[in-house]
Amino acid sequence: MEEDNDTKQEPMKMNYEDSNSDGMSDSEEDENKATTSTDALPQISKSWAAITTNCPCYTGGNVAFSHAPTMTSSSTTTSTSEYEQHSSQHFILAQRGGDISIIEASTGLLLRTVRKGKMFQGGYDLSNNDEDDDEGEGDDDDEEEMDAEAITAFALSPNNMDLITVTRNHLVRKYSLVDQQAGGDSMKKAGLKQPSKKNDDNKKDVKHQSVTSVTDPAKVSFSFGKSGHKLPVTKVAFHPSGIFFATGSVDGLVKIWDVRNGGYATHALHATSNSSSGGGSRGRYGVTCIEWRPTSTSLILAIGREDGSISIHDLLLNAHDTKQASLPVAVLRDHLSAVTCVSWSSEVGSSSSGGLSSTSASGSRKHGGGIFFSSGRDSVINTWFISEEEVKSDFTPKRKKKKTNRDDTGQSQTSIKVSYRRIRTLPVYEQVESMVLLSRKFRPASETRDQHDILDKKDIVLATVGTKGNVRLWKATPGNRDGSIQNVVSDLSPLATQSDDEAFGEEHGGYTSLHLTSLSTTHVSPMLVAIDAEHNMTFLRMSWTTGDGGKVKLGFVTDRAIVGHNGEILDLSVVPPLRDLENSNDKHTVAIATNSSQVRIFGLGEANEDEMGEDTQKHSALSPLGLLDGHEAIVLSLDASPCGRYLATASKDKTMRLWHLPTQTCIATATGHTEAIGACALSNKIGCYDVGGKAAENGAGAFVVTASKDRTLKVWPLPGSAIMNRWADKGGGENPLNARLSARAHEKVSSRAMKQCSFTSLKFLNHFYNCSFDITTTCRI
Hints:
Shape: elongated
Strand content: 25-35%
Number of strands: 41
Structural class: mainly beta
Low-confidence stretches: 1-24, 71-79, 83-87, 121-145, 182-207, 275-282, 351-364, 403-410, 608-617, 749-781
Largest sheet: 5 strands, mixed
Distance between the termini: 16 Å
């Protein structure tokens, strides 16, 4: 090692002698060097600005997507041009703690929040605390007061302009996502926006505002007051007309609200007790899902509860009697666990005849037929057939003779009896967390004969996600309408399944919800958005593919993904782009260790120009590209090679792992430390990674340096890219690495110091020592 130090110092002596041979003094030489270096090197800016800020935008809970730009017949008084301007925007609303994030759909960037606006600019925290935490007795009181304003549920109006929220202290509010001129206090009495004269000059500016361009917090346009629920509200659902919305609580109560004329509650829908339960399951009536029938001319609502029951309410069937209208027209009790999702299909069974469904004397259907689907955590999907029949009532009140049940002709009035009969049950062998019905216009077109054999335009298609972490499509074929009700529709059969490579998986927690949305103006077919347990939003497209043997099948293609929340970030490393053109990636890749045994690989790309607005930033948010799973404890440090092919990770499990990034497989493992490894670094000379054989074993090739809590430093030579690529082609494996050097470095060091100091020191030294690492120099420093 002494010879190596001498050889390093000889060139420095020669340069010194050559510089003095020109007759220059030391001062003149220093001035010339300073002048030359100042002119050659670029000036570093003293002020820095963030180009893109990737803040946590989703921490779990409800998610809503902007609606398609369609104008409902019974929409509010909003003009058509203004409605199309706002409805054509593509954004996402997601719960973030006690606030709601507004996310740009094309880039995935967090734009602002409903309560705080654009507070994250410059790295501000978006937690519930508006100010820094101070020590004192009033902290608990302030925290309780702020938590009382936390939003527990919300719903977006069909015109994409209004937002209904319910807070923890049961306050129901209506926010305006676009108009920032209206104040909440001035409209509490009237319930309508009344702009003052001062705002007349700014009307033109208000019209040009969009949900994604506003940076201020959303203004409360109206406050409904207390919700009347005894327990927190967890579900809110808007009617397709935008006039009514429903709120569901843990106490089992569902209330219907009218946003017109000051806003008030029109109905209170209570849970019906099961006679067999004896009233002992009162605490299981919590509302788990609320779904309106997707027609603006009817007021049909389905309520799923924790006890597995489904209440069907038709608010227009007995509109003359408010008490009777609040009672359910049907109660379904075939599920054994919580009901998670329901959906109607009017494409089958709506025109049945021959004893399957009765109509009124005038031939008009008051409730509507069709097929009804329900899913739950009992791992089944039930198919229900909807029928109705006329029931004549001869009952006449004795006292109030003026209010009789007879019409002007003297005949008894008829009422409609609605029934839901279960005709099919499909076991899916997983707890279904979400289900989406794909109508005909939201499916990939079947152009060839083989595609028609797989998916016909008359088929009913369902998409489901659950605890297994896989997106699946199911189809049912309509049958003979003139036969029995069992032949109205066939059993659900598998249509498409997400591949194992792209599926989230059961071991990571599975998917929590599924949404059907159309967030791009350049693509006709919509996308399925699957949200997993780690708060990632994966956008999937349905497309026809050719499998083995030329067989046509329907599959999923991952379009992009949005990372909602990462947790605590312990370390990150920017992966250089690959040198070879075949595996080159147009995205900037970042490896992040996030207080977990898994390492996340993200890509930072650019948004599509055709999906960007005028105010959209060029860079997009981080999108997950993969997950490196192999360590048994938290990963504390990681480092990428300069060639962009390898990644070294150090963990609390006392091991260092080497990963092949193009295939995302572990190719080698280094064991030898007796405590947690707090720092690791790869050599920074690109040419060394191609060195193999004896030269690599002797220290001429690439290497990894690790620092552990056991107070030792170790150098691990790498066998060369040829052997490491061969390991990756064979599927990886825990190929052992042998330490070439090991030395006792620090006498006393804590785990925090190991992560903060040793990790930085190793990378600093490794950057300037671009050849074999001198372990004695490291110890001496």
